[in-house]
Amino acid sequence: MDKLAIEGGHRLEGEVAISGAKNAALPILAACLLTPDPLELHNVPDLRDVSTMLELLARMGVRVERMGDRVRLEARQIEQALAPYELVKTMRASILVLGPLLARVGEARVSLPGGCAIGARPVDQHIKGLQAMGAEIALEHGDIHARVSRLRGAKLVTDMVTVTGTGNLMMAAVLADGMTVIENAAREPEIVDLASCLNAMGARINGAGTDIIRVEGVARLHAASHRIMPDRIETGTYLCAVAVTGGQARLTGTSAAYLDAVVDKLLDAGCEIIPERNAIMITAPPRLRAVSVRTAPYPAFPTDMQAQFMALNCVAEGTAVIRETIFENRFLHAVELSRMGANLRVDGNTAIVIGSAELQGARVMATDLRASASLVVAGLAATGETLIDRIYHLDRGYEGLETKLCALGARVRRVRG
Ligand code: EPZ
User: Where are the alpha helices (DSSP H) in 211-319?
Assistant: First the structure.
């Protein structure tokens, strides 16, 4: 398994380009199933999860052409409406094909996603919503087997805010018979991006970005092209990386527009942030101030930035309280950070971090995507070398990580094997 070796203590400075958003690209790729016409996507990030989704779609009979960050998808006909275990177990977001397949062909067999390191992550809200739209759903030998002659519009209220749940139900609704209203909908920018792509394909969606989304079903969707929005979590991760090294950098191809909560915390930590039209400039102070965070659905502080801010607080001045309210087990990075000398304590869904001037490089292990990012941020700030194992987690969500970091002056190399 590849490892990442980071020699810490180097200021990051210069310019780095941010890629397209993983969590917008994944549902938008699945949306190709909703029409036999071609869907042309730009700014698609080159990530392991994207490759997995493209593999899944190709197995269903979708014609996939990938040229750099451009992907052309054509689901002229669906040969098999199946998402097999061996792919779903590597990427839970495969569940995003369920709604589109039911809408397009009226049947789907999708392996039930298991839990992952950060939590059980059930999909009961996806299933409940599809059943309310008329689908018959059975759990058979670990698969979700769903059937319906035609989905019908319904009023849906999810028990909690669910991002992929909202995306799945919105995609199911675009070809349903009649109006669907999704209440308690996720307001994440990635949902807005998905709705924008679906509307370009001929869907009639209103309210994306609010907690009430209305979808008027149409007979069919048509060809469209769409540019994936920038990845706000990759953006936030690089902002943290520059911040902990006391550096200065310009992040291009992105925007502060979807990161208010994160930018506010970086300002509180003592950073200077200058938003530009299609970029963000950050200048960090020599020593950061500790900042407490509490995760919650958008527009509040994103759970996908919690681990990175734990690393930041490990080297900040003062004590921070970190509350994780979305996932039940999203502090796996804490023990690894402690191995680097961090002074922190975890109690249930709360972590107390007492900032110290110095972390020591150490051998650590990645457990999930954002925990891995947290260890990279810590490694950049640490004295000496940090060797991060199991970095396939990182490859799922960060395009060209070591190349981008080295371009900013970091000393990072991938150790094969
Ligand atoms: C999406 O996951 C993101 N993934 C996650 O990003 C992100 O952390 C999460 O939203 C929250 O923002 C993608 O978009 C591909 P949820 P998702 O459904 O949709 C519970 C990353 O690092 N829940 O919003 O799976 C669930 O257990 C990844 O890029 C149910 O109980 O998350 C959790 O506690 C990690 N039943 C909460 O709701 C359901 O049917 C929010 O989960 C659905 C969710």
Answer: 232-244, 260-268, 306-314
User: How distant is the alpha carbon of residue 271 from its chain centre?
Assistant: 25
pLDDT digits (tens, 9 = 90+) for 242-299: 999 999 999 999 999 999 999 999 999 999 999 999 999 999 999 999 999 999 999 9
Label residue 116 by pLDDT band (50, 70, 90).
confident
pLDDT value at 50 more than 90: yes
Determine which helix (DSSP H) or strand (DSSP E) holds 100, and give its type and residue range.
helix 98-105
Give the active site residue among 116, 240, 314, 406.
116
Find out whether the beta carbon of 340 lies less than 6 Å from any atom of ligand 1: no
Selection from 310, 353, 56, 324 nearest residue 64 by Cα: 56
d(CA 140, CA 203): 32
pLDDT at site 344: 97
Ligand 1: distance of its center to the CA of 164 in Å? 6
Distance, CA 385 to ligand 1 centroid (Å)? 33
240 is catalytic: no
Region 170-197 average pLDDT: 98
The pTM for the full model equals 0.98
Residue 398 Cβ inside 6 Å of ligand 1? The answer reads no
Cα distances from 151 to residues 101, 185, 385, in angstroms, run: 11, 19, 55
Q: State whether the beta carbon of 163 lies less than 6 angstroms from ligand 1.
A: yes
Of all atoms in ligand 1, which is nearest to the CA of residue 328? 34
How many alpha carbons lie under 13 Å from residue 164 in its C-beta half-sphere?
23
- Asked if residue 52 has its Cβ within 6 Å of ligand 1, the reply is no
Token code pair at residue 20? 């397209």
Query: Do 231 and 21 form a contact (C-beta atoms < 8 A)?
Result: yes
Residue 121 CA to ligand 1 center (angstroms) comes to 7
Q: Which atom belonging to ligand 1 lies closest to the Cα atom of 160?
A: 38
Residue 117: pLDDT over 90: no
